[in-house]
Design a protein that fits this description.
Blueprint lengths: L1 H7 L3 H24 L3 H20 L1 H21 L4 H78 L4 H16 L5 E8 L4 E8 L19 H9 L3 E3 L19 E9 L2 E10 L7 H32 L9 H18 L3 E8 L2 H8 L1 H18 L5 E6 L2 E7 L3 H17 L2 E3 L2 E3 L3 E7 L7 H17 L5 E3 L7
Parallel strand pairs: 11-12
Antiparallel strand pairs: 1-2, 1-5, 3-4, 4-5, 6-8, 6-11, 7-8, 9-10
Amino acid sequence: MLKILKFENLGFYQKWVVVSGTTALATGVCYWATQRGELSLSLLLLFYVPLALSTVFLGLNVTAVLAVFIILISLFNLLSVSAPTWILVTFFIGLAVNYIAWYRWIKSGELEEFQLRKAAEELDLLENDARIAHEKIKNAHQANQVKIQRYIALNELARSLAMTLKTQEVVIFLIETISKTFMASGGVYTLLLFDNSMRKSLHAVRYSVDTEMEVRLNRERLNSDEIFNAWVVSQAKPLFIADTANDFRFQNYSPENKIRSLVSAPFMAGNEMLGLIRMESCQPLAFRQEDARLLSIFCDLGTVALEHAALYRQTIELAITDGLTGLYVQRYYKERVRDEVFRALEHKLPLCLMMIDVDKFKDYNDKYGHLTGDRVLKGVAQILRETVRTVDLVARYGGEEFSVLLLKTPWSGAKTVAERIRQKVAAQEIVAAHETTRVTVSIGVAELNPSFKDVETFVDSADQALYQAKADGRNCVRFAKTGTGS
């Protein structure tokens, strides 16, 4: 067995040398035997030794060629020595027998080879099927992992939104969760909130997952009239675009920022649209249809959270604002005044406070009725809001009395604002009982001074100035004495 293995380990040229040498030796012995009349020895050597070695070493094709060569030499030898007829007949019978044996051997080998090839092909098919099945399972597993991660993110977002009562926090949760969930290549995530009462668009944008929250970015993207946003607003349903270059709905679209794929969904509270979210990418096919469905689910959660935040905000506003004028109520206003006084003293900032009273409002109310009196109070409140800055605090202090806290405003600035308020109120016309009427206000102004003992002293100083304005004939502005509480 070891010797056979040694023969199998021979190189290609070594095998040819063995077969060629054996054939040459057999041919020589054959020729010598034929010349001496030893035909049986010649046939034995010719038909078995070289052919057997050739079959083992070189294969059937080479052995067939070698067999033809040996047969021709043998026939030549037999004819050259004028062998008897029975020898030639025996020779040809031997050829026929060998031919039949070889033919059957080759056919059986071809059959086996065919069967082996067929079995190999079946194995290849099975392997290919197994590989395809493995890829399907792998892809399904990856898809399931993505779905699991997305539903985990959805669950975490729902829990976070359930504990959030501020609109800004809702916006942050939504943008961060969506950008981390989808993570599209070159993705930009935009959220627009529409405030119909203020005619403004609140917005937040996040570029991919590597950037911080942005609020001042591409204005086109944050415009509700932009082509994609306008489509969502008009249709009130989600928008999915696999490739803007091939979407017939936007054939004339040629954006400067080269948006190629986009998904957008609205926040729908019944028939009212609170805003929208959109995801976009400069790469085509960055999103799939299932991304649009998932984004709609995010928007549904966001809608509920925004409604809760709005309801909470309204509840807080009802608690801190006056129902008639919409200004802060006295209790909340005093808390804010206290905070601003401490901040102004700590940072050495100027701060002025005004106390405002509608002159002879009781008489006016008795003459024209409470409804007209309410219109007067609303008109004065509107003038106050329009005259002061948005950072300033305006409150209905009680009855017909108002108060304004002017932040970072010195004495000179407060004087200008107070006089402007007095003039606007005096110029306002109010139609009551088919006649045009007017009202006036008296204003007392105090500037914060470190000598004030407490916040109440500061407020009382402005109040004393108001009493002085009333004593001086009303419809005027008076200023508290600096450094005193009177």
